[in-house]
């Protein structure tokens, strides 16, 4: 009995030790997180004036800011430049050549420092989304290790087809979303994604004008209402198929199908 009691005491002691150690570890993690958040906040505060200034700069001024060593690698300043409508292809390319891994990652800061980038999109995503970005810059960004950056590269109609095909066999919903959002996506890449497990991917395929019409009847019977509704958006959807969708079990599908029937004067 004494051995049993001793064993219980030992076990209780170990459990208390584990609990204490767990509490210490959690407290340490929280401390690191808070210090990191404070550092991020402090960094963004220092950048606020320059971020605000960016909106008043022309292309020469933006280039000058990139030449300024004090701000040329500042995360918030680079994001602001990448969102400026006056950023040229050359300026965007200069940003894309930077090797800082932070530029490929989501980030946060004060409201003023974040500016229009309220979602905290990575700087390289902002570059890939810019209407002035060049094909060469997109090809460089296609080498990113971040799939969100890749997604925006693939969705850009300026991205050459060989880049889309290079990612065509990769199993990733972010890669799929990038491809189906590209208006120039090849039909065969869309066909591969018609049976994706992700309903948003299938919905993108259903609505894409390059999707082969022979896939539309299959997608019109999809379990997800959003996919069936997207079929009604496809320019190749027949009158018969639209009438079928107008009798769908989901009101949202029926309403959109009926709207398309009226627009096409069927």
Describe the protein:
There is one protein chain. The protein is an all-alpha fold and 266 residues long. Helix content is 64%, strand content 0%. It contains 16 helices and no strands. It has helices at 2-54, 59-67, 75-83, 89-96, 111-114, 123-129, 135-141, 147-155, 161-166, 173-181, 187-192, 199-207, 216-219, 225-233, 239-245, 251-263. Helix 8 (147-155) runs parallel beside helix 10 and helix 10 packs parallel to helix 12 (199-207). 35% of the residues are buried. Residues 1-9 and 32-41 have low confidence and may be disordered.
Please render the helix and strand layout as text.
Layout: H1 2-54, H2 59-67, H3 75-83, H4 89-96, H5 111-114, H6 123-129, H7 135-141, H8 147-155, H9 161-166, H10 173-181, H11 187-192, H12 199-207, H13 216-219, H14 225-233, H15 239-245, H16 251-263
Helix pairs in contact: 1-3, 3-6, 4-7, 6-8, 8-10, 10-12, 12-14, 14-16, 15-16
